[in-house]
Amino acid sequence: MACDMLVETNHLSKVFQHRDISFGVIANQIQGCINSLESMKEQDGLHLSDFKSQLEDTSNFKGVEINYAARGRRSCDVDGRAKFESIRGELLHELVKNLRERFPNVALFDAMEIFQPSAYPDRHNPGLLLGWGNDKLKALLNHFGSPKVSKNKEFPNPIDKESCLGQFLPFIPIYIHIHIVIKEQCS
Fold first, then answer.
1. Per-residue pLDDT reduced to its tens digit, 2-14
2. Do 130 and 152 belong together in one domain?
């Protein structure tokens, strides 16, 4: 079971370690990891399924007896497999809960695509740039441009939403140009 969970969480960890990561990819990978872990609550993962298929009815695995006894006891008065399923459910629940707490607003990763020049429409067709990213900017402004509360103290808006919206269209070509210049200098 741990192998199945580690496959998912390690993959997510490696995604975050990429040098050139796409914000849109992050959102999909987080949600994919959560979905995979959620499905493991009802369906065995590949490794656990393989283990169970090799487990004999006599609680022997490849000739080794699997003892479900609690530490310090010879036998267990509870069905070991039922206990395992209970623990498995709790572990997966906590893991998914922790991921959701760590990434409470996955949609913001998609919105951050406005800071990724490769996501922009063709720079040679300025008509495509009109209005592009406004919905993403609004999502970011709704999250970061509202008063924040910490320890029962309210802090004012750190961002002027209207100014940001008004400055976004002129910002796009400048941002793309700077990105191209930097890319050419690094080549």
1. 888 888 998 888 8
2. yes
| 142 and 96 inside one domain | no
What per-residue string of b and e applies to 61-81 under the rule 16 or more CB within 10 Å gives b?
eeeeeeeeeeeeeeeeeeeee
Comparison of pLDDT for 65 and 139, the residue scoring more:
139
Q: Within this chain, do residues 145 and 69 fall inside the same structural domain, yes or no?
A: no
Boundary of a domain, candidates 71, 102, 133: 102
Backbone angles phi, psi at 174, to 5 degrees: -65, -45
Asked whether the beta carbons of 15 and 8 are under 8 A apart, the reply is no
One DSSP character per residue, 101-146 reads HHSTTTHHHHHGGGG-GGGSPPTT-HHHHTTTTHHHHHHHHHHHSS
Q: SS3 for 149? A: strand
Quick: pLDDT tens for 148-183.
888 888 888 878 888 888 888 888 778 777 877 887
Say if residue 131 is exposed, middle or buried (CB neighbours under 10 Å; 0-12, 13-18, 19+): exposed
Tally of structural domains, the chain:
2
In a domain, residue 107? The reply is no
Q: What pLDDT sits at residue 163?
A: 87
| Residue 97 domain boundaries | 2-102
CA proximity to 81, closest of 102, 59, 112: 59
